[in-house]
Amino acid sequence: MKLKPACRHCGESLTQTFVDLGMSPLANSYVPLDTPTKPCSRYPLHARVCSECLLVQVEDAVPASAIFSDQYAYFSSFSDSWLQHCKVFAQSAIERFNINENDLVIEIASNDGYLLQYFVQAGIKVLGIEPTANTASVAIAKGVPTLVEFFNFPLAARLKGEGIKPRLICSANVLAHVPDINDFVRGISELLQGDSVYTVEFPHLKNLIEQVQFDTIYHEHYTYLSLVFLERLFATCGLRVFDVDKLQTHGGSLRLYVCKTTATYEESPSVAATRAEEAAVGLDKATGYKGFSDKVNAVKAGLQSFLASAKSEGKVVAAYGAAAKGNTLLNFCEIGPLEIAYCVDRNPAKQNTLLPGSHIPVYPIGKLTESPPDFLLILPWNLRTEISEQLKSLRESGTRFVIPLPALEIF
Prior knowledge:
This protein is an alpha/beta fold. It has helices at residues 64-67, 80-96, 116-121, 133-141, 153-161, 181-191, 205-210, 227-236, 269-280, 292-312, 324-332, 367-370, 384-390, 392-396, and strands at 16-25, 31-32, 42-49, 56-58, 104-108, 125-129, 146-147, 168-172, 197-203, 223-224, 239-247, 253-260, 317-320, 343-344, 353-354, 361-363, 375-378, 400-403, 409-410.
């Protein structure tokens, strides 16, 4: 009999299911277009909640090194709205924490330099830490010094020993990608000193549940985060949260401002307010995580019904955005090229490939002009406003846009 997996934070046996999405391929394992018969390896995608510390998590299907390789397909700079979000944050952080040319800003998982480039433009010294060599090379070309390494406690200790003293450490949408979350946060604590600050952005688990954002669950997202859990984790490493920003990014995110417990920052009222909001929906107790699977199955049924109806009427459905979240959605809902004719994406690294598992072909954006669909399923639904504006002419010519969740919407 297989033993239940242990919680990656506290070690308790994980007996409570959050949602079981079955067997799924790695979300960013795109298949070359010229090998359509190449099978995709599939792994269990079963999210559980720890009844002790309330961390929602999936098991390690494959080593992180197999996911975040030298040819990682995700480049942060392909979203204009995301770049604007980062530019605004850089400007506000410089002003709020009086960061100047004598200070150092570190970003963990700096990808293609999408954030640190704005600190560089302001004359601030920066250091990116990024394990994927292909994205790091783009950052370096932008003038963003980058270490091509995974961040962990040993690296933090090494940098501290070399005299590295960051004024600000940033990480956006990376904490969920870390298999050993305890080690990662210990590394943050090792580098912080005095009134230096760590900011961490992540999709808020509260929104994932309320908006049925199950497609954000995939193998490279090891954990799904809340303030109630993170405050417990930070406390074990001598850290505390002193402020919280609510963000619209990625379907609703939080940005936490974190410091050493001995730092001088007073706690903002937004911290207590966020705690209260999470408690109101039950995130502070294990029973609050029950019932999510039923909501997920309702989304699956709705999308399958729409696609079956469109097919019976001879309508063509295409997809926009070869997003990792879309691959979870398509595979769980058992959708392939018989239902969706093709997908388009702005990222050249994803073009002329097949989506993992579903094997739907991915083309450049121009395919929409060459073969206009009747319906366009927007897989990165968090960018619906940006995408619908970019494709305004397509919409005006008769194509209708489709959003799959929290309930099917056609506009």
